[in-house]
Task: inverse folding
C-alpha cells in the first residue's frame, strides 16, 4: 500500500440548502500507482509477449520453408527416378540398335496436328489413339497418348515398351517409338489402315469374305505361337480379343495392344492375382484364381476364332436365352450335329463348309471349360492347316475341374471403345467375383477327354 492517498466526498440536494457532516467511513483498495508507472508496467508485460509471438511465427515460417525445400527435392528425385525407370532399359536397347525410337513431344504434336480431334482413331480408359504422319519416315503411324487420369501408370507404360520392343513378328503390331516428355506418355505404333477385326464383324465397316476370315485365323495363331514358344521368356498377352486384332491395308492380321501383357518363365503362370481382360474372353479358371497362363490365352484365341466364324460377340444379351453365351450355344449345336447353323448369316452361305467346321471345332477346343483339355497353340495351328485330324469333342459342354476360388478377388476387366477407323483402346472397370457369383462351370465335376477324327 502506498503511503498517501487522497479521498474526496461530494453530496448534493438539488435546489435545497443542506449541511453535511461525516459520521463514519470505511475504505478498502487495491494497490494504486501513479499514471507514469502504469505505462511502464504495460510495456514490461507487452515486450515478452511480443517477443514470444514473433519467435513462434519465425519458427513456423522456418519449418515451412524447410518442408517446402524437402518436398521439392523429393518430388524432383521421384520424377528423376521414374524417368530413369522408364528410360534406362530403352536407352540400353537403343545402344544395341534394336529398340524403338525416342520421339520428342513436338514431333508427335506436329505429326497429329496437335492431337486434333479429327485425327482420333479411338478413345478408351488409357487415353486416345491418334493417326499421325512422320515425315522423315514417310509413313502414317498410330500414336497412343496415355491420359493423366489413366490407370496405366508409368510402370505399366514402361512394361509395355519393354515387352513389345523385344517382339519381331509379321503377325504382331510393331512398336515404332515412344515419348516421355512434359509429363506426357506416348507410344507410336505402325498404322493399320483397315482397323480392328471387330469393326468389320460387328459394326458393318465392310463385310469380310470367308477367304479373308480364315486367313485371319491362320495368321493370328502363328503370332500367338511366337509369343508363347519362340522367345526366351513366354509373353502372356492377357487381352486377346477381336478389337485387338488389327488389319493392315491387305487385311493381313497383326495382334496389338500389349498394355496388359506379362513376361513369365516357360512352364509357369503369371504371379499377379489381378485379373485383367475382357468379359467373354477370359477363361473361368483365370477369373477364379487370378493366375494367367498360356491356357488362358488359348481360351481367348478360341473365342476370337468362334467370333470370326459366327460373326457375333461372345456375349449378346439381345439374343434369346439359349444363344446369349456364344461358346455354350455353338457347343450345343455341335452336339446336335448342326454346327454349320452357327455360321455367320451375313455370309449368305458363301463359305467353305470344311473350313467353317474346322474353325468352329478349333474354337470350341481352345475354349474348353477345363484348361487341362485345351490344345497348345501348335496343335491348333496343325488342325487349322489340316495337318492332323479334327478333334472329337464331348457332345455336351463339359464343366471345369479345379480348386474353389478365393472368397473375393479384385478383378479388372476391359471394355473396348473404338472408332470405325482403326486402332482401339481399352477401358478399365473393377468387379469383385466371389464363389456366389461365379458361373456354374466352376463347380467340381469330371471332364471327358478329347479324341480325334479325320476331317470330312
Result:
Amino acid at each position: 500500500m502506498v503511503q498517501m492517498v487522497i479521498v474526496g466526498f461530494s453530496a448534493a440536494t438539488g435546489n435545497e440548502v443542506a449541511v453535511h457532516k461525516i459520521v463514519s467511513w470505511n475504505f478498502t483498495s487495491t494497490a494504486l500507482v501513479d499514471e507514469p508507472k502504469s505505462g511502464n508496467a504495460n510495456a514490461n508485460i507487452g515486450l515478452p509477449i511480443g517477443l514470444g509471438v514473433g519467435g513462434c511465427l519465425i519458427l513456423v515460417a522456418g519449418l515451412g520453408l524447410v518442408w517446402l525445400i524437402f518436398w521439392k527435392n523429393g518430388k524432383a528425385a521421384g520424377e528423376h527416378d521414374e524417368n530413369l525407370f522408364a528410360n534406362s532399359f530403352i536407352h540400353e536397347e537403343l545402344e544395341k540398335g534394336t529398340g524403338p525410337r525416342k520421339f520428342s513431344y513436338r514431333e508427335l504434336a506436329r505429326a497429329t496436328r496437335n492431337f486434333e480431334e479429327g485425327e482420333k482413331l479411338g478413345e478408351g480408359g488409357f487415353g486416345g489413339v491418334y493417326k499421325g504422319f512422320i515425315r522423315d519416315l514417310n509413313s502414317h503411324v498410330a500414336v497412343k497418348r496415355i491420359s493423366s487420369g489413366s490407370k496405366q501408370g508409368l510402370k505399366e507404360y514402361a512394361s509395355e515398351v519393354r515387352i513389345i520392343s523385344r517382339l519381331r513378328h509379321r503377325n504382331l503390331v510393331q512398336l515404332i517409338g515412344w515419348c516421355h516428355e512434359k509429363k506426357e506418355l506416348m507410344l507410336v505404333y505402325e498404322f493399320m489402315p483397315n482397323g480392328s477385326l471387330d469393326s468389320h464383324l460387328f459394326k458393318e465397316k465392310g463385310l469380310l469374305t470367308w477367304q479373308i476370315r480364315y486367313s485371319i485365323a491362320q495368321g493370328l495363331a502363328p503370332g500367338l505361337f511366337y509369343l508363347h514358344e519362340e522367345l526366351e521368356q513366354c509373353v502372356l498377352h492377357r487381352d486377346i480379343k477381336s478389337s485387338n486384332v488389327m488389319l493392315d491395308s491387305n487385311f493381313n492380321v497383326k495382334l496389338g495392344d500389349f498394355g496388359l501383357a506379362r513376361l513369365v518363365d516357360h512352364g509357369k503362370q503369371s504371379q499377379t492375382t489381378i485379373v485383367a481382360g475382357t468379359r467373354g474372353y477370359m477363361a473361368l479358371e483365370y477369373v477364379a484364381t487370378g493366375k494367367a497362363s498360356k491356357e488362358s490365352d488359348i481360351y481367348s484365341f478360341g473365342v476370337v476364332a468362334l467370333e470370326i466364324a459366327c460373326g457375333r460377340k461372345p456375349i449378346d444379351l439381345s439374343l434369346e436365352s439359349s444363344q446369349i453365351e456364344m461358346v455354350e450355344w455353338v457347343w450345343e449345336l455341335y452336339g446336335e450335329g448342326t454346327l454349320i447353323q452357327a455360321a455367320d448369316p451375313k455370309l449368305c452361305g458363301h463359305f467353305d463348309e470344311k473350313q467353317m467346321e474346322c474353325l468352329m471345332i478349333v474354337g470350341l477346343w481352345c475354349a474348353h471349360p477345363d484348361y487341362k483339355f485345351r490344345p497348345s497353340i501348335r496343335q491348333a495351328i496343325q488342325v487349322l492347316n489340316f495337318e492332323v485330324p479334327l478333334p472329337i469333342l464331348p457332345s455336351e459342354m463339359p464343366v471345369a475341374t479345379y480348386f474353389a476360388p478365393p472368397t473375393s478377388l479384385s478383378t479388372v476387366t476391359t471394355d473396348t471403345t473404338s472408332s470405325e477407323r482403326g486402332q482401339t483402346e481399352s477401358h478399365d472397370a473393377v468387379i469383385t467375383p466371389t464363389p456366389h457369383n461365379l458361373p456354374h462351370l466352376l463347380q467340381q465335376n469330371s471332364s471327358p477327354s478329347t479324341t480325334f477324327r479325320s476331317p470330312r
Remarks:
- The chain has a mean pLDDT of 78.
